[in-house]
Inverse folding.
């Protein structure tokens, strides 16, 4: 064995490392791959916030969680969930300590960018039938043309009956598509800027082309679609008014690369943090502090709305916990710690110009902490305080979690937000952390399996702290 040189010894003592998973965590590789098998199955079946909500509640119930009763009383180790309108959900495992000593929260979101149908979506043009859409969240519109899309959601009929829709995922089911011009005729379109390549009003879904029999009449292709919809779902054209139908990429979740190290799929943002948070909570029996996972809707459009984290549903849940134990909710919140678990941009070697390599996240370098998000001088960020960062990094290091810290791109290159500020505004200690993603918000996003696993390990260590 060679002795370390004085420089090597000093380097080891003073310099920070940012290592690949395989450097110090190779022994956990099999566990990481196995964990991701579960995640891939979850992602494949949970393509919308409603489907995520149902998948999470089904998983929770199978592990002994029961619906939360605000008038009930609970002991350490009891497990409950609170369903918010079928689109967001809170999971909770009661701890040994009073909630007055604070709860441990992991907050993620389960909505993803997509194409929503307009309230009056169905039309016929030149013997083709279409649905008009209104995109949801920050998409690059040109990426959504000429790819297979599936349709998910629900019709609510006037009598309150819910008619669920999921079409285009199972083998043999029809799918839908937004058309694009052929290159031969795209000379003018090609002069548009990339952000304008496909326009909002051009995101029209092709849904059919055969007329209703050979009767005389106008719009017989549209009529034939309505006839098929009546047959399949028992609805008429007015039922689109009280429907939430979402067109999402119909791609299957797949391993990517010869080494299968990456997962390609739609909606990693932010189910890739929601799933590890949920699994970490499921592994708790009777934690010291009450542990809470909140899976919110509406993050991609700013978190407003009664299923988003800017609403009061989470605060009301904490108020119920506090009332039950005879303490004040504001004291619970003040003493609570939260990880805002959301994805961040991974360094992309094809586009290095937008990243500050010293302050960015790399795939396979672990769960990534972001002290702040936001844009134009941290605008819209909650900017965690150094004290809380100190506490969290100690928790992660003590549990040997593989982690890194980064920002989302260079200063003034762009930016983004998370739910962190809504929890911080409730007087909770909050820090952003999550999985680095390549092609974020694209119809097919990429993450590294080891980073998904590291996010699970981070949530686990946090809940047990
Ligand atoms: Mn997100
Ligand atoms: Mn997002």
């Amino acid at each position: 064995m060679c002795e370390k040189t004085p420089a090597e010894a000093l380097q080891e003592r003073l310099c920070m490392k940012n290592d690949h998973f395989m450097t110090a965590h190779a022994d956990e590789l099999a566990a990481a791959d196995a964990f991701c098998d579960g995640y891939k199955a979850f992602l494949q079946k949970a393509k919308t916030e409603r489907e995520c909500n149902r998948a999470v509640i089904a998983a929770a119930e199978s592990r002994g969680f029961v619906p939360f009763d605000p008038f009930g009383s609970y002991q350490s180790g009891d497990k409950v969930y609170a369903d918010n309108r079928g689109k967001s959900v809170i999971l909770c495992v009661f701890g040994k300590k009073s909630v007055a000593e604070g709860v441990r929260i992991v907050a993620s979101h389960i909505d993803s960018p997509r194409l929503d149908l307009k309230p009056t979506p169905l039309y016929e043009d030149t013997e083709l039938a279409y649905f008009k859409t209104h995109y949801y969240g920050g998409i690059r519109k040109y990426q959504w043309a000429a790819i297979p899309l599936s349709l998910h959601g629900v019709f609510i009929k006037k009598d309150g009956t819910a008619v669920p829709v999921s079409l285009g995922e199972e083998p043999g089911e029809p799918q839908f598509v937004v058309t694009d011009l052929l290159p031969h005729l795209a000379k003018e379109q090609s002069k548009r800027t990339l952000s304008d390549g496909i326009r909002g009003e051009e995101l029209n879904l092709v849904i059919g082309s055969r007329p209703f029999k050979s009767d005389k009449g106008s719009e017989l292709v549209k009529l034939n679609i309505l006839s098929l919809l009546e047959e399949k779902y028992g609805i008429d054209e007015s039922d689109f008014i009280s429907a939430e139908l979402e067109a999402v990429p119909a791609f299957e979740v797949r391993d990517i690369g010869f080494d299968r190290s990456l997962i390609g799929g739609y909606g990693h943002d932010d189910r890739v943090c929601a799933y590890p948070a949920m699994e970490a909570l499921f592994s708790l029996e009777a934690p010291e502090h009450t542990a809470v996972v909140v899976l919110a809707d509406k993050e991609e459009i700013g978190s407003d709305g009664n299923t988003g984290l800017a609403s009061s549903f989470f605060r009301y849940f904490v108020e119920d916990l506090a009332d039950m134990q005879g303490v004040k909710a504001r004291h619970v919140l003040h003493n609570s710690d939260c990880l805002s678990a959301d994805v961040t941009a991974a360094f992309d070697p094809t586009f290095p110009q937008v990243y500050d390599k010293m302050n960015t996240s790399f795939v396979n370098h672990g769960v990534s902490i972001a002290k702040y998000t936001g844009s134009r001088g941290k605008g819209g960020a909650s900017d965690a305080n150094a004290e809380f960062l100190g506490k969290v990094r100690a928790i992660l290091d003590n549990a040997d979690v593989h982690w890194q810290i980064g920002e989302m791109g260079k200063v003034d290159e762009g930016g983004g937000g998370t739910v962190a500020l809504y929890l911080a505004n409730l007087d909770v200690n909050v820090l952003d952390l999550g999985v680095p993603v390549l092609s974020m918000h694209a119809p097919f996003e990429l993450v590294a399996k080891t980073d998904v696993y590291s996010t699970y390990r981070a949530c686990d260590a946090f809940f047990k702290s």
